[in-house]
Amino acid sequence: MEIIKTIPDMQKRANELRNEGKRIGLVPTMGALHEGHISLFKIARPLCDVLITSIFVNPTQFGENEDLEIYPRDFEGDEKKCKSAGVDIIFYPSTDEMYPEGYTTFVEVKGLSEIMCGRTRPNHFRGVATVVAKLFNIVKPHLSVFGNKDYQQAVIIEKMVEDLNFDVEIIRAPIVRESDGLAMSSRNAYLKDDERRQALYIYRALKRAEEIIKGGERDIDVIIEEIRETIESNSDMKIDYIEIRDAGNLGELEVLEGEILISIACFVGEKTRLIDNITLRV
Amino acid sequence: MEIIKTIPDMQKRANELRNEGKRIGLVPTMGALHEGHISLFKIARPLCDVLITSIFVNPTQFGENEDLEIYPRDFEGDEKKCKSAGVDIIFYPSTDEMYPEGYTTFVEVKGLSEIMCGRTRPNHFRGVATVVAKLFNIVKPHLSVFGNKDYQQAVIIEKMVEDLNFDVEIIRAPIVRESDGLAMSSRNAYLKDDERRQALYIYRALKRAEEIIKGGERDIDVIIEEIRETIESNSDMKIDYIEIRDAGNLGELEVLEGEILISIACFVGEKTRLIDNITLRV
């Protein structure tokens, strides 16, 4: 397994691989790898000749009062996990390499970036779109895999790829959960025991919504209220949002039909913001 | 010479060319080709195996009250000029092909896009950066040539390429002028005889500034005033701006030294906005 730290080296390697006719797969990550990431590697592995993952805690997608400083970092652990998962190359740049002094260019996917998580995290998706555009230009992948845990992110990346004509196939991967249902997240490492117990009610509320929809409920307000009650009567979590939207384009729904997304963001404890979602065909 | 009208066809062709080891050169244009564009073809021609030009009047770089509707279009004439200049492929997409309904993604080079021409044309450079990013992803050039007539545009494209890590070599080309000094521009076609005569004083004012700087003048305000007087005492043109800046990064100058840019924008007649510039080493 190779580790490449500079942009020119990575571009040179990508050019060599493409000239040899190799198909490049990219899984972009912020490290602190867990089973969710490993599942992305497993999905990408048979679809490409060379599997590249980037490990970069991207500062432009963090807000001023967010957890950039304390975000978990464990390159040695990540390296081992990449090796066992069959990763060929880790692209592991420094912050200065990615954002040298005087950096000023940003990619924005308007509309999609201001709703849901974008309301609480105003420049988050601008940072995501920008770093992914950079990674596509640096790693030059034929395909790239994104997890549905960050559902809005995946939709925004697909829209950016379509609008800016990146010649990259985007593959969406299902959420990986702990045995009790909690969605895997690097931020789960922040949770104290009691917070970990409370956090379970995010997924339980999603399952409760699924249950009442399957039972015939079609009133969006009633479903959202049921989710709110499930969370609030079982935890001290502060709900950031509960949204039910079109799973394809994240549009608002007049009536509950088609492929729908139910998405939740909650603050648990003082500093941890967790997100989760399910999709349903109604 | 091939003419390609769709994005998938152009990407397929670009992939084929790259797989054959061909070096692709791109000259992006809005058509209405003149000697200025031809000079870009001539510069690109020996540097690449396959010379591609794009002809696309890009709506996102025009403001609401600007000349998008009347911008000169002459595809047949352009085609002939491309053929004689040794162009291999014209990429000639429709507006719907480039900006389908629901288009929402933009590339912004902050800071550089808000000064000079950006003050009068607030979203102009966002449109330019966005369409060039798209063209780079569609045509996949190894190198691309930009004329210094649109000096600020060329600096912004270089910054976008650097910041977003596009693996494209940017080549800057000198301004081509009519025999009397007027900078070649597709917008010169708008000029009535008397306006054409007045427009000459843009370049004459630049030359006057050069003359007094060579004579020892170093006071930026005095030089700008001399330019203003040259224009205003010889024409009815309305000055949009006269700027003297660092030619490298367009930064403001405290003292007149190094490689400097003197840039002018003027409105001549009712609808025509012309720009011109010179660079000097002081």
TrEMBL record, chains A, B:
Miscellaneous note of the record: The reaction proceeds by a bi uni uni bi ping pong mechanism.
Taxonomic source organism: Candidatus Coatesbacteria bacterium 4484_99
Similarity comment text for this entry: Belongs to the pantothenate synthetase family.
Subunit (UniProt): Homodimer.
Binding site for (R)-pantoate: 61, 153
Active site: 37
GO biological process: pantothenate biosynthetic process
Gene symbol of the encoding locus: panC
Name the UniProt record assigns to this protein: Pantothenate synthetase
